[in-house]
Design brief:
It is built from four helices and seven strands; from the N terminus they run βααβββαβαββ. The protein is an alpha+beta fold and 160 residues long.
């Protein structure tokens, strides 16, 4: 991704402090440093996204599987939200997934995260199920996740 000076680079262990700063600014139940370290050590697709000045605006982490890709974390820093960065990161993820031979992209999203659900639906994801009690929810206990899927095979293109 290099439109308008925006670029994507692999996340490395030295990036974890910046990544965690964004993660904790966005989520009430953020991933831990260990979650990110484990993802990097497992060889998951982990990309940081930077603006023309080299400032981070987001990152995504996806787990490759047999002919599929599972989006685990897509996050845009609060000060960079509502600028199309989430969609741009999905565009790149779909391209990278197709290059890896993935035919489908999967994700879970909190039932309460209506903004993310709207982004994914506009992009072409379809709800295919729910996972009960998937996310921590503090005093509320656990929150359900909506499971969504998008075809990304050779003949699938993201929707405008």
């Amino acid at each position: 991704m290099a439109e308008g000076g925006v670029r994507s680079e692999p996340v490395v262990l030295a990036d974890l402090d910046m990544l965690l700063a964004i993660e904790t600014a966005v989520y009430p139940f953020p991933w831990s440093r260990g979650n990110f370290v484990d993802s990097l050590h497992a060889g998951y697709l982990a990309r940081k996204h930077l603006d023309a000045a080299g400032r981070w605006f987001g990152y995504c982490i996806a787990m490759p599987g047999v002919q599929e890709l599972h989006l685990l974390n897509l996050t845009v820093a609060p000060e960079h939200q509502h600028r199309g960065h989430g969609r741009a990161m999905l565009d790149e993820l779909v391209r990278r997934g197709a290059a890896l031979g993935a035919q489908r992209l999967w994700l879970e999203v909190r039932v309460s995260n209506e903004r993310a659900q709207a982004l994914y639906r506009r992009y072409g994801f379809r709800e295919v199920g729910q996972r009960r009690g998937y996310y921590p929810a503090g005093a509320a206990g656990r929150e359900n996740a909506i499971v969504m899927s998008l075809p990304i095979g050779a003949h699938a293109e993201p929707q405008p």
